[in-house]
Amino acid sequence: MRNTYQDLQRSHPCFGGVRNHAGRIHLPVSPGCNIACRFCDRVISDVEQRPGVASAILRPEESLEIVEKALALCPEIAVVGIAGPGDTLASDGALETFRLVRKRFPQLIQCMSTNGLLLDERADEILETGIDTLTVTVNAVDPKIESKLNKYILYHGEKIEGVRGAEILIENQLKGIRRMAAAGVTVKVNTVLVPEVNGEHIETVARTVAEAGAKLYNIIPLIPQYELAECREPTCPEIDAARTAAEKYIDVFRHCQRCRADAAGVPGEKEVGAQLYQKRLAVKETFSHG
Ligand code: CLF
Ligand code: SF4
User: Fold this and answer.
1) How far is CA 44 from the centre of its chain?
2) pTM of the predicted structure, to 2 decimals
């Protein structure tokens, strides 16, 4: 039986309206990515090809010992999340890890994050792992806007650029959200707010994902880097306005810490990742799909 949204508001640090002081550990088992967000430093997605960086990626079987140590260091940890550094469905590490963790630590809530390109396609496998919570990063539901945030997708062996790639991405994200929500998984949607690009579009995204079955919405301010290095970070009033617009349709999460893909501890309160992972992920500002 999966945890309900009501349970999760008490027990999951990213699904409560008020801070609940619960902890989470991220297991960095997903190196590669299958889309090209314009704000994502490609160092992160190319991680697989770089020997110096690959050592920071865990193998699924190594995760168990890490979780064990994390629980000893931080007993508040209630959630095992996988949020990168690439996409959780672009390779098999995340689903394999969830299966192993479920057997050894059945008490922990399992939380997966994805860009959603393969969500519908891999839904049965995901549901079989027993995850409780899912986050899908949906930055736009209009392909023209999405194409300004995403350069291309790699889909079934093909590189599909621009608006066409964005159309497929959005369609798959929404189909996937509907399917997972209908199966009883609590779905959160993250949107990276880039004022010049999707600033006026937040309300539409929030309404659309709520209609698809998402329960919670999280607006993540852009970290200006890579191709969007010239864009500005949203101001506090802009973030507030976006949250207010979204809140007409869906609950809004307000305590996001933009966690690293190898974070561990209580978000914003206690961080034990550095003690846990001998080498932190060799990436700059890690974008977590959290
Ligand atoms: Fe991690 Fe994300 Fe699960 Fe939370 S983080 S995979 S939902 S357990 Fe949380 Fe961190 Fe914000 Fe993410 S504070 S970046 S929303
Ligand atoms: Fe992939 Fe995430 Fe980077 Fe986008 S932000 S390219 S989904 S790793």
Assistant:
1) 14
2) 0.92
- Identify the nearest ligand to the CA of 189 by its number: 1
- Model confidence over 50-85: pLDDT tens digits? 332 334 789 999 999 999 999 999 999 999 999 988
Contact 262, 275 (CB under 8 A): no
Closest ligand to 27 CA?
A: 1
Distance CA 176, CA 123 (A): 7
Helices (H), the chain: 5-11, 42-45, 51-54, 60-73, 93-104, 123-129, 143-149, 162-182, 195-198, 202-212, 236-247, 273-276
Q: 271, 227 in Cβ contact below 8 A? A: no
CA 26 – ligand 1 centroid, Å: 9
The one-letter amino acid code at 244 reads: T
Kindly state the tokens that stand for 277: 């992972």
Tell me which residue has its CA closest to atom 2 in ligand 1. Answer: 290
Ligand 2 midpoint to CA 263 (Å): 17
User: In 3-state terms, what secondary structure has residue 233?
Assistant: coil
CB 169 within 8 A of CB 117: yes
The order of strands in the sheet holding 264-266 is 251-253, 216-221, 186-193, 133-137, 109-114, 77-82, 23-26, 264-266, 270-271
Beta bridge partner(s), residue 23: 77
